[in-house]
Specification:
By secondary structure, the chain is an alpha/beta fold. It has 2 domains: 176 residues, TIM Barrel, CATH 3.20.20; 38 residues, no CATH class. Helices cover 46% and strands 10% of the residues. The protein has a 4-stranded parallel sheet. A two-stranded parallel sheet has the order 5-6. Strand 5, helix 7 and strand 6 form a beta-alpha-beta unit. Helix 2 packs across helix 3. The longest helix has 18 residues. It is globular and about 65 Å long. The two termini are 42 Å apart.
């Protein structure tokens, strides 16, 4: 998780990355280690939750929660670790307790996390727009994040609508994964049927390398007096 977070965080020096830290991967010592490593990897913010270590996706059933005191040790460990290393990484307190413990306990857990020093709240798996509005009101003025997983437990809410509700942050975890899954499946079915992927003429190796930063690499090499690309990169 840390390696993936570091790779994504370093794709762009100006684009903040919000990473999933799940349960923190253990007790307070491991939560502190996760916080420190995410911070040093360039992550801007991360959310940490109150499920047991062998957790499930927030939009699956059968989740099992730790008690509130255990959850608070995770939040405190993250906040204290950030303070120890002088980091400005944003700690997002996520609760998955709605499904098993109900709305009031979920809000109570988020209030406790807020009091323990968490910067942002995340009530996972809200089941209605009215509940989403209520959560923002009940925890105001604390910033709230909306996890917009389309076709999951939460009804579809656009970024504009979420802003009107009072959410300060919205994330779309499937925004890239969903289209990628569909495109890869369609391409493999075409390969199976036709014996060739049939990509568009624009989909060249050079184009893909340029998406990954080839032109910038050429400039860096040339500026340093290198000759790695002296012969060019385009096929003759």
């Amino acid at each position: 998780m840390r390696a993936n977070a570091e790779m994504l965080s370093n794709l762009s020096p100006t684009t903040p990355v919000i990473a999933d830290a799940d349960t923190g991967y253990g007790g307070p010592i491991m939560v502190a280690r996760t916080t420190e490593q995410y911070s040093r990897s360039g992550v801007a913010a991360f959310h940490i939750e109150d499920q047991v270590q062998t957790k499930r996706c927030g939009h699956l059933g059968g989740k099992i929660l730790v008690d509130r005191d255990t959850y608070m040790t995770r939040i405190r460990a993250a906040v204290q670790a950030r303070q120890r290393i002088g980091s400005d990484i944003v700690v997002i307190a996520r609760t998955d307790s709605l499904q098993t413990h109900g709305y009031e306990e979920s809000v109570a857990r988020l209030r406790a996390a807020r009091d323990a020093g968490a910067d942002v709240g995340l009530l996972e798996g809200m089941t209605s727009k009215d509940m989403a509005k209520q959560a923002v009101r009940d925890l105001a003025p604390w910033p709230m994040l909306l996890n917009m997983v389309e076709h999951g437990a939460t009804p579809s809410i656009s970024a504009t609508e979420a802003k009107e509700m009072g959410f300060r942050i919205i994330i779309f975890p499937f925004a890239a994964l969903g289209p990628a899954c569909t495109a890869i499946r369609d391409a493999m079915e075409k390969l199976q049927a036709d014996g060739i992927p049939g990509l568009s003429k624009e989909m060249t190796p050079q184009m893909l390398f340029r998406i990954c930063g080839l032109d910038e690499s050429i400039k860096i090499d040339a500026a340093a007096g290198g000759a790695a690309f002296e012969g060019g990169v385009d096929l003759k």
